[in-house]
Amino acid sequence: MQNIFSNPLHIAIAACFAAMIAVDFLNARFFASPKLFLLKRWLRCVFFSIAIGLLLSALLPEKPVNYMLFCGLLIYIFFETLLYWININAASVSECARPRQYESIDNAWRPERRFIKLKEKIFSLGFTQEAAMVSKIDGTPVIYQTCFDSSDRKTRLSVAFILHGGVWITASSAYSKTENGDILYTEAIPLAFGLRYPKKFKVSRFPMIENPLKIVKIHTKRVKARKDSMSEILSDPMEDSADTMREIEEYNRKIGLVSADINSDEYFTEEGKYNIWKDMILINYFPFMAR
User: Fold this and answer.
1) Where are the domains of the chain?
2) Which residues contact 73 (CB under 8 A, 6 or more apart)?
3) Considering Cα of 89, then 87, then 39, then 42, what sign does the dihedral take?
4) How far is CA 241 from CA 73, 102, 159, 217, 282, in A?
5) 141 by DSSP, 3-state: which?
6) Is residue 187 within a helix (H) or strand (E), and if so which, with residue range?
């Protein structure tokens, strides 16, 4: 045992393993955090890179350890991104890839105390709740979404709780419509998208922000920075959501990221899959670069 832990690499791999267990416990015990997910992915990368590197060093002792560790990193990257590609292809032929269908419900809010306080703070900013909805796959709820409108009805805030990887994560977005037809859209969704928004959407992404109140603050700054005025949002949230998803789908079908044949078993084209693959790498490992 003493000989094992005399090697710094053995200590590092043990520390990474313990840290991954701790992160899993925190995500399970409390509400999942995108920052914890990011930490776990990098810990997993370091863990497997060192583990594979040590294995290669044992098989090829004449090679430098640093060289074997680099090879371990490359092997990990290959299998990690290969898994992304497999998941994307599986999603492309499943219901998951299609635009979400929502149904109205009385309450789509989490019962935890901190989320109750969050809702109270949203109300304190002058927002009013306009809709609560749920999206299901095979009868199982996968998204709970609540929509709020600002007091002047020029900003709509959406807060969603999404089932991902067996845990619930928080996502939020805010949008406003300019009088010339542009849509100012600010999102905090810690999941890959990969498709394209129509040109009238002016999108800013902040996948590491957990608190919807921060998104409201950022969005408000974006609105104030615009010289044109904002229009009131009078549409029904559910109809609005369906229209937006339909518009995004049609645009991506037009530019070749979504299959032009609506009866095709494959929802995404090869180019669409490639874009999603790139976005998964970006969001999972370099989310601060997503804008």
Assistant:
1) 4-92, 100-289
2) 45, 49, 53
3) negative
4) 41, 9, 13, 22, 26
5) strand
6) strand 183-188
Q: Hey, what are 282's tokens? A: 């970006």
- Cβ-defined contacts of 28-32 (< 8 Å, 24+): 28/167, 31/110, 31/112, 31/114, 31/115, 31/168, 31/169, 31/170, 32/164, 32/167, 32/168, 32/169
What confidence tens digit (pLDDT) does each residue in 42-93 have? 999 999 999 999 999 889 888 898 999 999 999 999 999 999 999 999 989 8
pTM: 0.88
Angle between helices 270-285 and 34-59 (to 10 degrees): 100
**Tokens 């002016």 map to which residue?**
202
Sign of CA dihedral 79, 84, 88, 91: positive
Q: CB neighbours (10 Å) of residue 144?
A: 21
Please count the helices (runs of H) and the strands (runs of E) in the chain: 7, 8
> Count of CB atoms within 10 A of residue 264's CB?
13
